[in-house]
Amino acid sequence: MIPIDNLEQFIQRIDTMPVDDLIRANKELCELRIARGGEIEQFHGRINCCEPVKRHVTPYWLLRVIVNPGTPKEQITVHLLGSEVITSDVMLIDTKKKLVRTMNSIYSIGDRGAADVSLHAKFRICAGLHHWGVGSFLEVPHVFY
Fold first, then answer.
1. Helix-strand-coil split of the chain, %, nearest 5
2. 145 residues of the chain, pLDDT tens digit each
3. Which of 75, 78, 62 is nearest to 29 (CA)?
4. Which of 39, 60, 61, 128 could make an S-S bridge to 81, C-beta 3.0–4.6 Å?
């Protein structure tokens, strides 16, 4: 658990923390990182949009969640991440139409985020992991966002 002496220190600590360091316990069971280049090629394809776009996400990152890394039971999911959203699993990315299909919705995307993930996106990761029921187990900072 990250001790909180005051809110400013807590925010500064999260802001300067690498994404994978948001997980404070049981790191051998879960790893977080921002997907790059070849790690997302399998998701590239064409989306025939027949439903309304849920939300426009810019800047965006693609977050890789790796459960049981380096073991035969390894599972990797990719999620669209923005300052206002962390999605269900990404199923398809259409780079020409700038659309992402997740298990539940279609999102339009703008510009890729910088190498450093924004503070708001890190808060969204923390809140998402708690929402998915694994935040306490992984000792992710409690953020209600």
1. 25, 30, 50
2. 555 568 888 889 899 999 999 999 999 999 999 997 788 889 999 998 777 788 899 899 999 999 999 899 999 999 999 988 999 999 999 999 999 999 989 999 998 888 889 999 999 999 999 999 999 999 999 887 6
3. 75
4. 61
Q: Are 88 and 102 in contact (CB under 8 A)?
A: yes
DSSP letter (8 states) at residue 38 = G
pTM above 0.70, yes or no: yes
Q: What is each CA distance from 103 to 68, 91, 131, in whole angstroms? A: 22, 6, 17
Measured from the Cβ of residue 42, the count of other Cβ atoms closer than 10 Å reads 10
Peptide bond into 18 cis (omega under 30): no
